Every structure is written in structure tokens, then in C-alpha cells.
Amino acid sequence: MPWKSGYTISDERTVQDSDIHWPGDRACSFTIAVCLDPPCGPEGLTPADVRTGEFHYGMHAGLDALRALLNQHGYRATFLASAVVARLYPSVLRSLVEEGHEVAAHGYRREDVSQLDAAEERRRLQLTTEALDQATGARPLGWYSLARRDDKFAGGAVSPNTMSLLIEQGYTYMGNSPADDIPHYWVTEPETPTAILAMPYYYHFDDQFFLLFPAEGTGLEHADSLGRNWRAEMAAQHRRGRSFVMVIRPYTITWFHRMKVLGDFFDYVKTLDGVWNATALQCAEHWIKEFPQEKTLRLKPGIWKDYADSLS
Amino acid sequence: MSEQGFAEFTPLLDAVESNERRYVPIPGLRWPQGANIAVNITVDFDAMLLRRLLNEPPMQLAKGEFGGRVGVWRLLELFESHGIRITMFTPGRICELYPDAVAAFAKAGHEIADHMWEHRVPAQADVERAHLARTCEAIERLTGRRPQGSRSRHNHELLQEFGFIYTSHHWADDKPYFMANKRGRLVNLPFHYSIDDAMYFSFSWQNTENAAQRITDSEKVHDLWRDAFLQQHATGAGYLNICLHPFVSGRSMRIDMMDRLLTFMKSRPGVWFASCEDVARHCIDFASSHAKGA
Questions:
Q1: What is the predicted pLDDT for the residue at A262?
Q2: What pLDDT is attached to residue B278?
Q3: In Å, how far are A166, A265, B276 from A230, measured between CA atoms?
Q4: For range B268-294, the mean pLDDT
Q5: Structure confidence at residue A2 (pLDDT)
Q6: Ranges assigned E (strand) in A146-215
Q7: Looking at residues A205-212, what average pLDDT do you find?
Q8: What's the pTM value of the predicted model, to 2 decimals?
Q9: Backbone phi and psi for residue A104, each to the nearest 5 degrees, phi listed first
Q10: Among 3.30.420.40, 3.20.20.370, 3.40.50.720, 3.30.930.10, what is the CATH number of B30-289?
Q11: What per-residue confidence (pLDDT) applies to B146?
Q12: How far apart are CA A54 and CA A93, in angstroms?
């Protein structure tokens, strides 16, 4: 598209269905992202947030149940952990990596970074990288910033500097962008152009918005709608040959009927031919190799004209 | 004595009387070839523009961007595969952000209509006029034709002056009707939120709180809209104006949902899929040929 800073993050048109290909001629990619961090406010995780039975369950029985289900299906997932979780449960993260899962960074303490200056955001980003490196034995290559449950918007908060800092700090991909339903390039500098690969995310496939949302005790339960969304999107993306990314949490999805919704969905995926279950990193590496920025990103110069009576 | 007690109701009576003058029904309205229903599929091509106007954060803008780089093209394919003509309501600014998409819709025979310059109607009359003029020029430059209709709160006298023949905004009836103004009247093609995709699927729509979020699934909405269609179809001269946003309905699962819904509609007799302009022109012709003494 005609580029317009402050409005657009990528080019005018997505990669067409017919131009997309996956390793081994598989039909589509399928990524399971598992968020380990418990709910918190914009200030980030507090002792009260991690003192809950919910979080304890999510790091013990709930996580065990989810790992068992993933293993039963032979699925590899991307687990999201903040620096807090990495410092609290380093051995859990290491064991996930040993099982073949990916661990990606999910912020310093899940705080709102949108108002931070670049130096402070960089400092927290480096600390997070270090915490995950220490826990898993390798530095994370993916970064997520999912919305907190009580956020006004469901897309997750980033600052004006986040994407540039991720590039500077050597991250391969940013995990949650709603601008496409396949990997795409999030442009930080249109002139050069400089960009980071962004992985697709859409809140209609994220369990936290459907299961007693916005809060246990007062929120509404829509596990049935969540399951129907997963299935409908998976079917459509499989037919188109694109990507499907779901987000689940061990402390929400593993309860009762919800576990059945998840199990039934995994059983459904098994009926589809050629689904490539990939971690976000595997998917990102394939994309960067097969659809590099130089060949894929087609930015056109802006044709925007400013007027005194209009937004700039 | 009791009449005096109701004196304070006078402003309410005035409000209702002004409505009685303003909303002009089209008695006995029928569709061409005796169709049972006219269906207007309308696409509000906001992309990220409204998100930007409301100063929402980057990920909200990126959510809107999906509509421009992915969703709008899928909708174009969907309408072409069904051979139906639709109306795109576009802000003028979108012509600078997604010119290829707007031009492709026009080239495929769809109607391109006004949805304000930057998704707002300025309070100052001279600025409003400048915005409307700029939007008309932007659309004409891309499509070769000036817009004939508007989905907006633009001043109706101003719209008449610019040659508009209809609006599609709000509802005072479930069938098309006229709205009188000082220069004459415009057709209004009623648009109802219960058949608007954003009401079901767009998180934080219209500043909603988290406890009132729109996170349902497409199967449920398919069934509701199928029943909306059937309810209108059964009236014998029904009308349905389904509003789709590319950043919402352009998601794969919802394209499949609309594919099923359009297939179902086409399986019923007497369904007139038309652009809003076609329906508005029919309403004007019908009203003039059925006017008293005509």
C-alpha cells in the first residue's frame, strides 16, 4: 500500500493462498501457544497475582494435564513465559524445552510497556532475555505481548519502540500481530526498509476471552464458542493453505468440559491431511527462509496528502 | 385542569411531530419482478482509520490493517463467486491507503459510496463541506463515478446539494423510506446493528467494557442472520442490509460463514441482490409512479 506512518505496519496486500508453501508440501501450519503467566494488571505481576491457587494449578496439575494431552497427540507447542515465571520455575521451562517445546519471552513482569522510554524498555527486555536464557539454556528468539485479561483492547500492548528493540536485541520474531493470518513483516523503518517478522494472532482463538471472561465468578462461559471458532478457522485455513494459531493457558483450558473442547479440537485436526504442527519459531524460520523480506515485502511510497482540517 | 398538567410534555410532542414530518414511508413498496426480498450487502471499509481517529494503540490499528491487506480481497472474491453486486462504503482517506482494493471493487461492478472523509462528520459546516467534497473527488478519481449514497451523519441538505440520492444510516422502519429535508428528500436504506458483524465479533467496539465483549462464533451468527433473512423474505417485500467490515468478516472462518449464508439465500425464490444505489433508485421510481394522482 501506499505507506503511511502511524497507520500501516506492512504492505498493501498479503501473500496469496496459492503462493504459500510449507515444508514437505504440507497443507498448512498449526501453532499452539501456551501462556504460562497468570492474569495481572498493567503494573505487571505482583505477589498477589502469583499467590493464587489458579497460578499454582497452572504450574502443576493443570500444566501436567496439558503436557500429557500434547504428548498424546505428539504436538509441540510454544510456551510463553515472562521473566517472573522464568525466575520462579526455571526447571519447568527447562523440562519443556527438553520435551521439544519452544519457550518464548512474554515480557519482564507482563507490565504495560507502552509509556516506557526506550532505555528502560531495553533494560527490561535484556533482563527478560537473560532470565529465560538462564532457565532454558538458550536465549529466546520469540517475543510475545499478549493482552492482559483486563486490558481495554484484546491485541496486547507494545510501545513505539518495541519492534525496533526486538530487532536490535536479536529476536527472530514478534509473536502476536493481528494484521494478517500468516507470518508477515512488521516495518519499523520504511526507507531502508527494516522489519521484524510478526506471527499471526487473533483473540477469537485465545482462550482467556471465552472462559469466565473477564473474571471468574462474574464472567460468562463460552467454551462452546471457542471450540467452534477453532474448528471453523482451522478448516478454512487448512483449505486455503495458510496458518492457524491458538492460544491456551494451563490454568484455564484444562478444567472439565473445556478439556473436552480442546481434546475434541485436537482430534478434529487429526482428521485433516497434511497439517504441519510447528512451534512459532519453526514456522518463523521456514517463513524467513522461503519468503524473505527482500522478496516478499512490497512497500509502495505514500500518496497521503496532509490537510489542516484532518488527522495527520 | 388535567391539560395544564401535561404542558410539560409539549417538547416531547414537538419531537414526535418533527419525526412524523421527517420520516416518509413508501406505501405498498414492491421489488422488481415481484422479488420477495431485496438484499444489500454493505461493506464498511474502515480498516484502521476509525481506530486511528479514536487514538487507539498500535495493535488495534494492526487489527484494522487486516481488513485492508487481507479481508477486503477475500470479500471481493466471495461476492464474485456468488455473482452478486454489493455496496462498499469507504472513507475518502482509504482511497489513499488502499487505492488498489477500492478500484478493484469498482472494476468488478460494485458500488462505491461515501463513509465520510476520515470517519467523522466535522461540527463546523465549512469543514464538513470540504470533507465531503474531498471524499467525492477521491472516489471519483479511483472509480470514475461520484458516490450516490452515504453512510454517515452528514447534513442531508448538504448531501442533496452534492447530488446524493440516499443514505444508509440508522433505522426508523425495517423497509426503505424517505427522509425529508429543506431541499427535498433522500431515501434511507435502514441499517440495523443486529445485522452488523462488529456487534458480534469486534472486541471493544464502540468503547464497550470487557464484561460486554463481542466474542461469539460464526455458526451462531450464521443462524441468527439466516433467520433474519427468512423473517424478511416471508413478508413478500422484505429488506435486509447486512453490514460487513473487512477487518472482521474478512477472517477465513467468517468468509466461510457468509459463503454458506449467501448460498442459502440464493436457494430461496425471489431474492434480489442489488447495490444500495439500485434499491434507492427503485424506491424513487416506485414512489413517483405510485404517488397519488400519478
A1: 98
A2: 98
A3: 30, 7, 34
A4: 92
A5: 79
A6: 173-177, 184-189, 194-200
A7: 97
A8: 0.97
A9: -115, 155
A10: 3.20.20.370
A11: 98
A12: 18
Residues 184-223 of A with CB under 8 A from B: 186, 202-204, 209-210, 213-214, 218-219, 222
Burial class (CB in 10 A: 0-12, 13-18, 19+), B27: exposed
Grid cell for residue A303 = 500518496
Which B residues in the span 224-253 are in contact with A, Cβ-Cβ below 8 Å?
A: 251-253
- Per-domain residue ranges for chain B? 30-289
Beta bridge partners of A194: A189
Q: How far apart are CA A260 and CA A254, in angstroms?
A: 8
Instruction: Give the nearest chain A residue to B123 (CA atoms).
Output: A309
Instruction: Tell me the C-alpha distance between B178 and B32, whole Å.
Output: 19
Cell (9 digits) for A15: 501473500
- The string of pLDDT tens digits covering residues A104-160 is 999 999 999 999 999 999 999 999 999 999 999 999 999 999 999 999 999 999 999
User: Using CA atoms, how far apart are residues B249 and B67, in angstroms rounded to an integer?
Assistant: 8
- Mutation site, A182, A218, A310, interface B, largest B CB count within 10 A: A310
Q: Nearest chain B Cα to A217, which residue?
A: B211
pLDDT digits (tens, 9 = 90+) for A48-105: 999 999 999 999 999 999 999 999 999 999 999 999 999 999 999 999 999 999 999 9
**Domains of chain A, CATH where assigned:** 27-296 (3.20.20.370)
What cell does B41 get? 450487502
- Cα–Cα distances in angstroms (integers) from residue A28 to residues A197, A272, B79, in the given order: 18, 10, 25
| Strand runs labelled E in chain B | 23-24, 37-44, 87-90, 111-114, 149-150, 166-167, 177-181, 184-188, 238-244, 271-273
Q: Do A153 and B253 touch (CB under 8 A)?
A: no
Other beta carbons within 10 angstroms of residue B33's beta carbon come to 7
d(CA B251, CA B62): 14
ipTM metric: 0.97
Is the pLDDT reported for residue B293 higher than 80? no
Q: Do B218 and A229 touch (CB under 8 A)?
A: yes
C-beta separation of A214 from A221 below 8 A:
no
How many angstroms separate the CA atoms of B94 and A8, rounded?
12
Verify whether the Cβ–Cβ distance A177 to B99 is below 8 Å.
no
Q: Round to whole Å and give the CA distance between A45 and A36.
A: 12
pLDDT value, residue A289: 98
Give the one of A1, A210, A309 whose C-beta lies nearest to B68's C-beta.
A1
What is the Cα gyration radius of chain A? 19
Q: Which helix (H) or strand (E) holds B145?
A: none
Nearest to A142 by CA among A269, A274, A288: A288
Write down the residue that cell numbers 479481508 correspond to: B71
Chain centroid to CA B163: 18
Look at B65 and A179 and tell me if their CB atoms are within 8 Å.
yes
**Three cell numbers at B222?**
450464521
